[in-house]
Design goal:
Length: 321
């Protein structure tokens, strides 16, 4: 309106002394000036508009990448939670190699992030076992108390070891464990099933539990696993628990140590928060289903399943497959 008013006023003022032609020339000049200003403004805004468009495209790509990451993380979490609960582990033994190969995390990031999921998986899996009466709380308490002390030490030690060496240690540990589990099956075959009587707790059994808890806590923090893979054979062979009770007890015992180890990794910035939403959702579903499946499986089949998983994972980490 100011432009129009100005042009009209100029037309009136100029038209009086110079005639209509002079007024028209003034109006034409004003129009040209307005057009030039508009063109200059458009040229100034064009780069800003392109920048805004680039930012919007980048945000859309980032959103798409995050959705894809959530889907992958959910699949990894569900697989690890299912297998982990079925073998009496928190799932870290499966999570760690899957996160380095599927989610492309570094070895240290995989260990730290796995412990977050292990804590949740252990809790949900132990709930499923407890509903079936397959958790010995007394043994779980002793194991947990010992593991809590050493879990932080293992997590701190992990940062001082090269990632390749850490990966090789993890793979070798799984292969040894697979052999141990099958030897345990043969021992049970010839010696008979364990009595699983903790009412008559002896000093030797308490010592076994304390030793297993201490070693498991350190390994849990070091390798980013729940530690149930080590606890279960010890509980069945040396402490006299059945396979199912040993698995449920191991899961219950590793909840608190996994949380402590996880907090240490968080302080060292080795936990990838962007994968946690999908990962924890998948672990929650898989762990609860795995615990219920395990309660309905024969113990011999459970041990065979554990051994196969450990061998495949260990060979993969060592580069054999």
């Amino acid at each position: 309106w100011r432009e129009i008013f100005g042009m009209g006023l100029g037309f009136v003022l100029v038209s009086a002394p110079t005639g209509v032609d002079g007024g028209r020339r003034l109006v034409s000049g004003l129009k040209n000036r307005a057009t030039t200003r508009a063109s200059t403004s458009a040229q100034t805004l064009a780069p800003l508009e392109r920048k805004v468009s680039e930012i919007e495209e980048a945000e859309e790509r980032a959103s798409l990448c995050q959705r894809n990451l959530n889907v992958k993380a959910f699949s990894v979490g569900a697989t690890a939670g299912l297998i982990g609960s079925m073998i009496g582990a928190g799932g870290g033994i499966v999570l760690t190699p899957l996160m380095t190969t599927v989610l492309m995390l570094s070895q240290h990031e995989a260990h730290g992030t796995a412990l977050v999921a292990v804590a949740l998986s252990s809790f949900l899996g132990s709930v499923a076992y407890a509903r079936g009466g397959s958790v010995n709380l007394f043994a779980a308490g002793i194991l947990c108390g010992a593991a809590v002390i050493t879990a932080r030490l293992g997590a701190m030690r992990s940062q001082q070891i090269d990632a390749k060496k850490l990966r090789a240690c993890f793979g070798g540990f799984l292969l040894v464990l697979a052999v141990f589990i099958q030897a345990q099956s043969l021992f049970t075959l010839f010696a008979g099933p364990p009595a699983a009587d903790f009412a008559k707790m002896t000093a030797s059994k308490i010592g076994i539990l304390l030793g297993a808890g201490s070693g498991t806590g350190f390994i849990s923090g070091l390798l980013g696993i729940g530690g149930g893979t080590l606890m279960v054979p010890v509980l069945t062979v040396f402490a006299g628990l059945t396979q199912k009770v040993a698995q449920g007890t191991a899961l219950a015992a590793m909840v608190l140590p996994a949380i402590i180890g996880c907090l240490t990794y968080v302080s060292q910035r080795c936990v990838k928060a962007n994968v946690l939403p999908g990962l924890l959702t998948g672990v929650s579903i898989g762990a609860f289903l795995g615990g219920n499946f395990a309660l309905n499986m024969p113990e011999t089949l459970l041990r065979l399943f554990c051994g196969v998983i450990f061998v495949l994972t260990g060979c993969k980490l060592l580069g054999f497959i």
